[in-house]
Amino acid sequence: MNNTMLDFKTKSSNIIKRFRDHENLLFIGTPCGILSPLFEELDINKEVIYAPREDTAIGVACGFSLKNKKAVVLMQNSGFAQSLNILASLVEPFKIAITLVISMRGIQNDTTRENVIMGEATVSTLEVLKIPYKFLTNDSYISEIDWADEYLQTNQGAVALLITPEFFGWEV
């Protein structure tokens, strides 16, 4: 394993550990190439539930949250778009606290047409839904996870952490 792969593995391990430190007990999502280091880390201890659709994952996370337990939903931004109805009709009006980890297909080195459309629409859609978000960056991804947890403790509703293709070195 080269140093770059070790860096991505360390980064994914640190991210999952930090979510655990904040007592996130449910990790649910749909597989995604950009997020594969996170899924691989969660698979080590069988900590992830795979959902057939992102809106299904959000529904399960909402039920978990209503029991006062923290949930993290992992998804692509195309699946985020598919989930607009549940976000607008359940999560937002009832202020259900969940963390969305969204991979940003269609930006940076991902130039496929269908992904570019979602890459351009994701941030503005989050803003319309009034879901606060931050991009995870190499220098401060732990503090961005801390920000998300603090937001959920002091506010109501969902929060999103966005992961670019370059964050884990994903290539088309």
Automatic annotation (TrEMBL):
Q: Which InterPro entries match?
A: TPP_dependent_decarboxylase (IPR051818)
Q: Key word Lyase present in the record?
A: yes
Q: Name the UniProt key words of this record, in alphabetical order.
A: Decarboxylase, Lyase
Highest rank taxon of the organism: Bacteria
What GO annotations for molecular function exist for this entry? carboxy-lyase activity
Looking up PANTHER family in the UniProt record yields:
SULFOPYRUVATE DECARBOXYLASE (PTHR42818:SF1), SULFOPYRUVATE DECARBOXYLASE SUBUNIT ALPHA (PTHR42818)
Q: What is this protein called?
A: Thiamine pyrophosphate enzyme N-terminal TPP-binding domain-containing protein
Identify the species of origin.
Anaerobacillus isosaccharinicus
